[in-house]
Amino acid sequence: MEITGTRVLITGASRGLGRDLALGFATAGADVALVARNADALAELAGLTGGRAYPCDLADRAAVRGLLARVEADGPVDILVNNAADEGIGRFTELSADTLEFMVRLNALAPAELTRQALPGMLRRGRGHVVHVSSFAGIVVPPMLATYASTKAFLSHHAVNLQFELKDTPVGVTRVELGEIAGTDMMAHGRTEPALAGMFERMYRLRLNRQLNSAEITAAVLDAVRENRWSVRLPRRLSPASLLADVPRRMTWLLARGLTTPPAAEPRSTSLYR
Ligand SMILES: NC(=O)c1ccc[n+]([C@@H]2O[C@H](COP(=O)([O-])OP(=O)(O)OC[C@H]3O[C@@H](n4cnc5c(N)ncnc54)[C@H](OP(=O)(O)O)[C@@H]3O)[C@@H](O)[C@H]2O)c1
Predict the structure, then answer these.
(1) How far apart are CA 199 and CA 205, in angstroms?
(2) Which of 93, 125, 132, 205 has the highest Cβ tally under 10 A?
(3) What is the pLDDT of residue 259?
(4) Which helix (H) or strand (E) holds 115?
């Protein structure tokens, strides 16, 4: 879809990749709705982009339940970019119950719930796009990241299922699977864990991986939205892992029958499945 003139909700916009995505969408002519916890950083970015800040803790159930209505009080959301996440590095056996719940809420439940809230309006208006920012961690088995990797597997798989469900509608879904991004806080935390840092170093030595920068990811995401592409996989040399994980998914696409276009007037209707 054409980005100029759209309204884009971006989660995790206060820093890292999300901040860069917000600047990229704003430069492309979108009105950006900025979500994260750090209200000062969002206000500063809103000033730079002409967008609006909606401070929100995405691990807070009640806050997430009301978020889309809060944002759409200022205008409908055409593009939803689910980018916020926390990596929670460490052994699963040492994870507290609170941290486990925080990560699943933030990384998996919030993007699914925001998508659930946004899709009916997009379908009714006949245009929309959802971007799930996932990771190659959701395909491979990175050390000390069991919960993070599992939530990213959820996001990637959720995106493909939505693509199938929405394939005959004007609403697109893009799954973004990324390797290590240079310079973000998440990457800095990852580097403090020797087993994880060692895995990356070995991958770089074998030229299986390279570090990404936020600008190239932003450019690829904007292109994917414009051209309604299903996937952004960066760096490209990691793509075979993602393509292999897609084999059973695509096979079921070929085998499945009977999923019809959701009626625009009743997007929540269970008649989706006939
Ligand atoms: N960095 C990498 O190497 C890498 C690799 C593959 C994929 N990715 C994916 O790329 C995306 C961006 O990563 P990044 O490196 O830019 O991460 P980052 O620098 O750690 O930024 C995370 C963003 O999420 C927000 N956030 C965290 N907890 C939140 C909460 N409870 N409620 C609302 N917002 C919250 C943060 O804002 P506040 O703290 O202000 O709330 C921040 O804006 C993530 O989905 C990540 O999984 C990253």
Answers:
(1) 10
(2) 132
(3) 56
(4) helix 110-125
Distance 185 CA to ligand 1 centre (A): 8
Q: Tell me which CATH code domain 7-245 carries.
A: 3.40.50.720
Residue nearest atom 36 of ligand 1, based on CA coordinates:
12
Q: How far is the CA of 266 from the centre of ligand 1 (A)?
A: 34
Report the share of the chain in percent with pLDDT over 70: 93
Higher local confidence (pLDDT), 265 or 56: 56
**pLDDT top residue among 191 and 146:** 146
Report whether residue 20 contacts ligand 1, using a CB cutoff of 6 Å: no
Query: 3-class DSSP state for residue 7?
Result: strand
Could you give the CA distance from residue 175 to residue 159 in angstroms, rounded to a whole number? 6
- The counts of H helices and E strands in the chain are 11, 7
Residue 15 near ligand 1, beta carbon < 6 Å: yes
C-beta of 38 in contact with ligand 1 (< 6 A): yes
Classify residue 181 by its DSSP letter: B
**CA quadruple 190, 11, 173, 224: dihedral sign:** negative
Question: In this predicted model, what pLDDT tens digit does every residue of 69-104 receive, in sequence order?
Answer: 999 999 999 999 999 999 999 999 999 999 999 999
Atom number in ligand 1 closest to CA 180: 3
For residue 270, pLDDT beyond 50? no
* Residues acting as catalytic residues: 148
Q: What is the value of pTM for the model shown?
A: 0.94
Q: Read off the pLDDT of residues 140-159 as tens digits, 9 standing for 90 and up.
A: 999 999 999 999 999 999 99
Nearest alpha carbon, ligand 1 atom 8: 135
Q: Which of 184, 192, 210 to mutate to test the pocket of ligand 1 (most atoms within 8 A of CB)?
A: 184
Higher per-residue pLDDT: 228 or 260: 228
Report how far ligand 1's centroid is from the alpha carbon of 183 (Å).
Answer: 12
